[in-house]
Amino acid sequence: MEAYKKSKTEVLQKLQVDSQGLSKVEAEKRLEENGRNRFEEAPKESVMKKILHSLSDFTTIVLLVAAAISFYTAIATDHGDLFEGILIIAIVIINSVLAIVQEGNAEKALAALQDMNKQTAAVLRDDQLLEIDAEEVVVGDILVIENGSMIVADARIIQGSQLRVEESALTGESEPVEKEAEFVATSDESLGDQVNMLFKGCTVVNGRGQAVVVATGMQTEMGKIAGLLNQSQDSETPLQNRLNRLGKRISLIALIAAGIVFALGYMQGEPLLDMFMTAVSLAVAAVPETLMVIVTLSLAFGVQKMAKKHAIIRRLPAVETLGSASVICSDKTGTLTQNKMTVRRVWTHGDEVVDTEDSMNEEAMEVLKAAALCSDVVIDKENDEVAYIGNPTEVAIVRAVQENYHSQTELGEEFPRIAELPFDSTRKMMTTVHKRGKKYISVTKGAFDVLMPRFRFGDVEQATVVNDRFGKKALRVIAVGYRIYDEKPTEITSEFLERDLRLVGLIGMIDPPRPESKAAIARAKNAGIKTVMITGDHVVTASAIAKELGILEKGDKALTGAQLRELTDTELDKTVKEYSVYARVTPEDKIRIVQSWQRTGATVAMTGDGVNDAPALKASDVGCAMGITGTDVAKGAADIVLTDDNFATIVDAVEQGRTVYQNIRKTVNFLLSCNISEIFIVLLAMLFGWGAPFTAVQLLFVNVVADGLPGFALGREPAEAGIMEDTPVPSEESIFARGLWKKIGINAAVFTIVTLFGYYLGTFVDGVSPWINASQPVGQTVAFLILAYSSILHVFNVRSSKSIFQVNLASNKSLFEMAVLAMVITTVIALLPFTQGLFNLVSISLNHWMLAIALSIVPVFVNEMIKFHQLPEEE
After folding, report:
1. Nearest Cα residue to 301 out of 657, 644, 738, 827
2. Quick one: DSSP state of residue 250?
3. Which pTM value belongs to this model?
4. Range 521-525, long-range pairs (CB < 8 A, 24+ positions)
5. Which among 425, 429, 318 is positioned nearest to 371, based on CA atoms?
6. What percent of the chain has pLDDT over 90?
């Protein structure tokens, strides 16, 4: 039923309800038949589904295959050594648990936010006014609404007085819409023009009335948008794509290397089973088992840091995605601005304009006091907090008066109101009559162009010039005039009261930018991130705010929704980078803008609070919803919820995201330097005919303990200086870009040389120790210690592009502690007989120990020389 096209009587008859409301019995029946007045949530993933999802990562699959082979070979060869396989499975389980627990914590935080916003509704049932849970409202209920009411369902207005509703959550327009119960549409109208309708999620800012509910839950306009969101699928983030590509490459290298080793052994006449075991150990060596755990921990640490800065992360990879953002598409109302109309300028006479941000003289206050008298704002004081209820324009005026030590209550007592002519859409003005001592005064306010013919006194010509000047600055202009009477007026009509007025002055107001927005946008620009304003507001207002914030600069353009709809996707893709402001847009337009930017290769972050923002939040690479003013639909569509509704928080989150990605690159450098070297150590040893330098369990220990423990702390590394001066990382850029593969190659080569040298001395050179003869077990033990120690020390090389002597250890205490712990564990297992047997190690002489320690320090020396000579160091 298109209720806005039907009269009040037709709607009531269709819904089988009268002015007394539904009976309680009928309401319960309808509630049972149609369900509760709430949105359907997308089905939540079961724990099992979450586990399977976490196990579907390519690198995890490779680890599971490696574990399966390890278990098979342990059983097939009757060694009974299941230790290796159990270790791999433990790593996979830890990674899954970390990811699932973090996402569960985010959902709990969101649920707590939603519980704080539980709504009630005033309804007529059996001719009694009841306050009920908003979820129990049914079609046919008569809503009783007044100034400040939140609309809980879509409803057709059946009676109203001075009713105005703020619908920005649905339409994006900050200006309240005046409602008319008698209006009946004769053709299709947009939501903003359905003036006889109320929509779920919107707020009454003036007047009172009654409305019959015509749609609840998913059938409301908000519900329809929520339904669209549940149908879309989440796409892979840039980080997930990069790590999947990395996992495939490493696995391919491992398979090729294992194949070569197996073939070499076969040609050298080695036993097939032994060569198969060596090939498996090489495959295990190549895969960095702890990479996914460390990445998850890095993301989780980023989540904790963001939570302290008022951002709840719903999906872990969103942390890094935001760090890759190259475009932030931001809603204007409530996100970049305060969603609070504020008086900016007051004109009284001549060429003098008072800027209320700087000062306020007595003449300007007289204009504001007169306008405040002619308003219906209600001031509610509770626990020392002042709440203003009413039309945003009038609230702005009254607030300006209150903040300058003039109480609205005192004004009312000094000039008691005795009559009024309410604002209506025909006259577009409001007049109130007050007693003023022994005389009487009427105060009229409204748009200047409407009131201008009614002014008989005052500098109207100069006011026309000032009005135009205010308009160019996108200020909403209210003109104020008055008339004095010797006796109490008896004719309370527009024709009598609203003529021969004296112009008092003009008030210019605007929904001002948030104080921190301008600096945040400048910071984003410095980081190579373009901020784009997308709003349902007028293009003049949007452009003025955008210029003030630094979004709309020389050469940038603004585009209206109507102009946007004339462009094809191809035409938009060619010109999308030219536009910084989009005004009067629909939810569909917002999605087109986001997708157009994405087609240019940009990683797009979208911010918003309204239902009209939700589809674009879902379509973007990372959606950021407002936690305070944001609707539940917007929060449900977003990846990140900002609990302080602050645009600057997004830029802080970008910095944290970049830090996370920087630390993940350091982790890749740290782990692969060792893993790649392991492949070459085994390959070259086999080529030289020296035998296998490691067993599989030794390699697994190095990967999990020597690499893993210090690697866990790399995620806590603070950002390096200048991180917000770099350009965003392109979504298609390889994780090895900007010189990282060179660093890994150099480090892997050094690791390979020193380890092979140590292995050769321990295996073939008797002169190293007078007490212990050279043998393969001795060589393996020496090689194991060199690889483990040098890998642990390598974490200090990769943590910064500066020399290790210039970096403060206290800036990441956990990294130092983990490195020491890894050193201690490695030393203990090489000394204790029980652990020696577990890891296929033997006792070695002091000379061998000194040799292992000396060779372990070589990679640190090489890295210091590279840094000293300032070879390419980009992170």
Report:
1. 657
2. H
3. 0.70
4. 521/549, 521/550, 521/551, 521/647, 522/550, 523/651, 523/724, 524/328, 524/651, 524/654, 525/550
5. 429
6. 36
Cβ atoms of residues 676 and 659 within 8 Å = no
CA distance 536 to 156: 24
- Which token pair is 765? 């050179």
Helix and strand numbers (H, E) in the chain are 32, 25
Give the pair of three-digit tokens for residue 792: 């642990």
Residue 408 near residue 402, CB atoms below 8 Å: yes
For residues 852 and 869, what is the distance between their CA atoms, to the nearest angstrom? 27
Nearest Cα to Cα of residue 485 among 443, 423, 430: 443
Instruction: Examine the residue annotation and report whether 331 is marked as an active-site residue of this protein.
Output: yes
Q: Helix 238-267 vs helix 272-286: angle between axes, to the nearest 10 degrees?
A: 160
How are the residues of the chain apportioned to helix, strand and coil, as percentages rounded to the nearest 5?
Answer: 55, 15, 30
CA pair distance 95, 297, nearest whole angstrom: 9
> Is 244 within 8 Å of 58 (Cβ atoms)?
yes
Q: Which of 621, 619, 583 is nearest to 601 (CA)?
A: 621
Inter-residue contact 66 to 116 (CB < 8 Å): no
Q: From the CA atom positions of the chain, what is the Rg in Å?
A: 35
* Contact criterion met (CB below 8 Å) for 593 and 329: yes
Question: Rounded to the nearest 5°, which phi and psi values hold at 822?
Answer: -60, -40
The total of other beta-carbon atoms located within 10 Å of residue 134's CB is 19
- Distance, CA of 21 to CA of 201 (rounded, Å): 22
pLDDT in tens, 246-283: 777 777 877 787 788 788 777 777 777 667 766 766 77
Dist CA 632 CA 226 (whole Å): 9
Cα(470)–Cα(347) distance, integer angstroms: 10
Three-state DSSP at 180 gives coil
Q: What are phi and psi of 21, to 5 degrees?
A: 90, 175
Which secondary structure element, helix H or strand E, spans residue 99, and what is its range? helix 83-116
Indicate the residue type of 712.
Answer: F
Sign for the pseudo-dihedral over CA of 731, 733, 736, 738 = negative
CB contact at 8 A, 727 and 750 = no
Question: Residue 179 gets which letter from DSSP?
Answer: P
User: Distances in Å between the alpha carbon of 174 and those of 129, 399, 579, 653?
Assistant: 31, 18, 22, 27
Tokens of 150: 């939140």
Cα–Cα distance, 639 to 567 (Å, whole number):
30
Write the CA distances from 592 to 193, 597, 620, integer angstroms.
Answer: 23, 9, 10
Q: What tens digit of pLDDT does each residue of 343-382 get?
A: 999 999 888 888 887 778 888 999 999 999 999 888 877 6
Among 331, 589, 621, 645, the active-site one is: 331
Q: Where are the beta strands (DSSP E) in 486-608?
A: 501-510, 530-534, 557-560, 579-583, 604-608
Q: How confident is the prediction for the chain on average, in pLDDT?
A: 85
Distance CA 757, CA 763 (A): 10
CA distance 294 to 570: 42
Angle of helix 58-76 versus helix 272-286 axis, rounded to 10: 150
Beta pairing class for 604-608 and 622-626: parallel
Give the torsion through C-alpha atoms of 667, 670, 675, 680, to 10 deg.
Answer: 140
Instruction: Compute the distance between CA of residue 575 and CA of residue 566 in angstroms, rounded to an integer.
Output: 13
Model pLDDT for residues 395-454, shown as the tens digit of each residue? 999 999 988 867 778 888 899 999 999 887 678 899 999 999 899 999 999 989 899 999
CA 388 to chain centre: 30
Separation CA 739–CA 221 (nearest Å): 52
Report the distance separating Cα 204 and Cα 207, nearest Å.
8
Q: What angle do CA 183, 185, 186 make, to 5 degrees?
A: 135
Q: In what order do the strands lie in the sheet with 530-534?
A: 311-313, 640-642, 622-626, 604-608, 327-331, 530-534, 579-583, 557-560
The answer to whether 243 touches 57, Cβ cutoff 8 Å, is yes
